[in-house]
Amino acid sequence: MKYLYNFGISQDDVQTERKALDINDGDHLICIASAGEVPLNMLSCSNIHINAVDTSQSQLHLSRLKMAAAIHFEPEEAARFIGYLPCRGSERMRLFRHIAWNFTREESNFWREHSRLFVKGPIHLGRFERYLSMFNWLGLRILGKRKVQKLLDFENVEAQMDYFDQHLDSKKVRFIFNLAFHPKIYKNRGMDAQGLRFSGERNIAAFFFGRFRSFCTSTIARDNYLLQLSLFNRILFKEALPEYLMEPGIHLLRARKDQLKFYKDDISEHILKYPEGYFNKYALSNIGDWISKEEYFNLMTNIGDKAPVESKILLRYIHYPHSLPENLRDTIHVNSSLADVLEAKDRYPFYSIIPMYIQRTSGNNEAPRNI
C-alpha cells in the first residue's frame, strides 16, 4: 500500500520541548515539521519565530492544512476536521472548501486528489497511524473497551499505575505487542525502513511494551491527547486537545501566524542559509534515527558553527543515540540530569531525550537577529 505520509501526528510532546529548550519570547526556533504539532503547539504557547523544515512535501501539506484549520475554524470544529474528534466525511469536505483558498494550486490539487483523507480525518491516514489502528482494534476487542477506558477515570498517576499493573499488564497485551512490533511485520508496514536502520537485533516489542507502561502511567491519562489517540483513535476529552486547538492557544496562534514558516528543505542545509546567531533553539525530533552518522555529524557541525552561546538543542531517539563529533565536544554539551526529569513526564515516553546546549570559550556570542 502506498502511503501519502509517514505520520499523521507529531509524537513529540511540546511541553518537553519548551522545558528542554528554555523557550523565551523572541527566540528563533528551527524544528522538524513532521505532521505539524510541534511548530503549531510551540507557537500557541510562546511568542517566538519558527522555521519548520521537512524533506517530505506531503508532511508539509499536512502541517499547513492543520494550521489553516486552526486559523479559520472554531477549536472544536478544527479538531473534528483534522480528525481528533469524530466528523462525517461530507462535513470535512464542506469545511475544506471553506479554507481551500489558503492553499497553493499544488496543495489544493493534493487534497482533492486524495479526498479519501477526509473520510476518517487526515491524522488517521499516516502510515504509522493506519498500522497502529489495526492493533488498537484488536486490543480493545480482546480486553474490552470499557476496561481500557477506565484508565482515564483516575485523578492521579499512582492510581493509574495500580490499575495498569492489575488489569492491563497481561499476557494478552504482551501478545499484541509481540505481534505488532515483530520485525518482519513492523518493518515497511508500520514504519518506513529508513526509520529502523539502527534498530539492530534487539527485541523492539519488549522495548515498546516497557515504555507503554510509562505512557499509561506517568501523566494523567484524561489530559494526554497522545495517549487517547493511541488507545482509541480519537480524543475522548475535549480538554485534552493539542495546545494549538485549545483556548487560549488557538487565539495566540492566529495572532502570531506570520511568525511560523514552513520550508521543504534539508534541515542541515537550511541552517546554512541564515546568518550566524540567527537560530538559538533547535528541536530535532528523532532525526538521528533516520540519517547516517555522516549526515548527523554534518548537522551538528553546522549547528556548532552557527549557534550563539547558550543556544539549546533537543534531540530524541528510539533506536540509536549518535555520539557527538570529537571536534564539537567542547562546544555542544549534554545535560543528562535534565534528560531524566523530562523523560519522567513526557506525554509520549517512547523516545529517549538528549537535551544539549552550546558553550564555547571563543567564537560567536551574538544573540539571534532578524534578516
From TrEMBL:
Q: Name one Pfam family in it.
A: DUF3419
Superkingdom of source: Bacteria
Q: Could you identify this protein by its name?
A: DUF3419 family protein
**Species of the source:** Salinimicrobium catena
